[in-house]
Amino acid sequence: MSLKSELYRDMSFSSDVKKELCTIEHSSDCCQRAEAYGILYYGRAFGKEEISLTTDYDYVAERYISAISYLSTYTPEMIVSKSGKITINVDSYEARMEILNELGYSGNERTMRLLTTNIENECCFGAFIRGVFLACGIITDPKIEYHLEFDVAFRTKSRDLIDMFEDFPVTPKQSDRNGVNIIYFKDSSQIEDILTVMDAQMSVMELIGEKILKDVRNNVNRKVNCDSANLRKTALAAATQTEAIEKLKSQGKFDDLPADIKELAQLRIDNPEMTLAELGASLSKPLSRSGVNHKLKKLTDMTK
Ligand SMILES: [Zn+2]
Fold first, then answer.
1. Domain boundary among 199, 226, 242
2. d(Cα 103, Cα 115) in Å, to the nearest integer?
3. Are 99 and 73 in contact (CB under 8 A)?
4. Once rounded to an integer, what is the mean pLDDT over residues 110-136?
5. Are 168 and 59 members of one domain?
6. 118 alpha carbon to ligand 1 midpoint, in Å?
7. To 10 degrees, the CA torsion angle through 133, 139, 142, 146?
8. For 69-81, how does the pLDDT look when each residue is reduced to its tens digit (9 = 90+)?
9. d(Cα 129, Cα 197) in Å, to the nearest integer?
10. Within-domain flag for 206
11. Number of domains the chain contains
12. Ligand 1 mean position to 20 CA, how many Å?
């Protein structure tokens, strides 16, 4: 299965993150306004003809409704389709105009552009991104891959969103999928930064936990590979040495060897699995690893 289909198959992490974001209490008026602007502006439609959002999650729908009630005197209702999709539609023209005017729009703009006046203070950036993520964000389970994206239907709006990340240490990538502009992040630390700025503390911890687990798994694999490479090397060297010793024996040269070398040679033949250091330690006069290496080399050289 390709990663892309995994992305759409497993939405559980996305829904967990969104659920967490929807429990965050607004710390100030300016941030509440910024989040409301983010979720409205990046919802399905935002203009005098239509202001609406579709979502799979009732908590996101509730958050959208409270954003509308915060900005206007209107409270829209949820419509749930047979498939479970939830739509919220501001179906009163007066209410749509009230919302647009409140956010600095006349309703007659030819192209909607982002108004940074609605993201007033430094504290508001995270709240705004939270609203945008609730409206059009997707995050993949970090067990599968690191991927966070915003799906934006309009090119100008996607450009506006990229501009918003200008002062952020993270630069998003862009692509196109079936005419939808995708702004995405692939790096785990970038995704961590975005979850942090949105104040999704639990989700950040989960991501970091998953990252640590992955690191541990990689280290264990590396160690196992390294250990078996060393074992192979030891076994190969032992076989070469044993062969040389057997050859000296068959040539009748073994008995003439100096006593210390003879002891080492016998030890080698009896213990093919021992490392050089272990051989050295087992001698009647213990030798260092390099001392053993030197003597064994001498032995094998004698057969050449
Ligand atoms: Zn603020």
1. 199
2. 8
3. no
4. 94
5. yes
6. 10
7. -100
8. 999 999 999 999 9
9. 8
10. no
11. 2
12. 19
Is residue 280 domain-shared with residue 180, that is, in the same domain? no
Q: Compute, in angstroms, the gap from residue 58 CA to the centroid of ligand 1.
A: 25
If you measure from the C-alpha of residue 211 to the centroid of ligand 1, how many angstroms do you get, rounded to a whole number?
Answer: 31
Same domain, 140 and 35: yes
Mean pLDDT for the stretch of residues 216-220: 79
Domain that residue 43 falls in: 3-199
Q: Which of 35-49, 141-155, 251-265 has the highest mean pLDDT?
A: 35-49
Same domain, 252 and 283: yes
Checking if the pLDDT of 251 tops 50, the result is yes
Q: How many angstroms does the Cα of residue 9 sit away from the middle of ligand 1?
A: 35
What's the CA gap between 87 and 84, in Å, rounded?
A: 10
* Average of per-residue pLDDT values in the chain: 89
Model's pTM, two decimal places? 0.71
Q: Can you tell me which residue has the tokens 């979720």?
A: 39
Across the range 12-22, mean pLDDT stands at: 94
Cα–Cα distance between 189 and 187 in angstroms, integer? 6
Look at the block and give the residue holding tokens 């060393």.
230
